[in-house]
């Protein structure tokens, strides 16, 4: 049996750390929507490459370069 996997490096601060640095400790609606769209694009790219991300959580965002 063969298992393919990706090991990803932690790059920069977590979304929780970034959120805490914002005024009122939260992101604006436009920032939240942009972050969500970016994360979905990354997940789509991973799926198209034949991988499945099994532990998607807001504290584990994906960084993709298109």
Top keywords for this entry?
66 residues; mainly alpha; 0% strand; elongated
- Helix and strand pattern: HH
Low-confidence stretches: none
- Structural class designation: mainly alpha
- What do the pLDDT scores average to? 81
The number of helical runs is: 2
The tally of beta strands, per DSSP, is 0
Outline, from the CA principal axes?
Answer: elongated
Terminal CA distance reads 32 Å
Major β-sheet profile: none
β-strand percent reads: under 5%
**Helix fraction bin:** 25-40%
User: What gyration radius follows from the Cα positions, in whole Å?
Assistant: 14 Å
Domain Protein kinase: 1-66
Organism: Oedothorax gibbosus
GO molecular function, one term: protein kinase activity
Protein name: Protein kinase domain-containing protein
What does this entry look like structurally?
With 66 residues, the chain is an all-alpha fold. The protein has 2 helices and no strands. It has helices at residues 15-20, 29-48. The longest helix is centred in the middle third of the chain and has 20 residues, at 29-48. It is elongated. Residues 1-66 form the Protein kinase domain.
Furnish the topology, listing elements before pairings:
Layout (H helix, E strand, L loop, with lengths): L14 H6 L8 H20 L18
């Amino acid at each position: 049996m063969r298992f393919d996997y990706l090991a990803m490096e932690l790059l920069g601060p977590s979304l929780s750390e970034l959120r805490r640095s914002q005024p009122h400790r939260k992101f604006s609606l436009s920032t939240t929507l942009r972050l969500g769209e970016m994360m979905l694009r990354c997940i789509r790219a991973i799926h198209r490459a034949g991988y499945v991300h099994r532990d998607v959580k807001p504290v584990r965002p994906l960084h993709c370069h298109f």
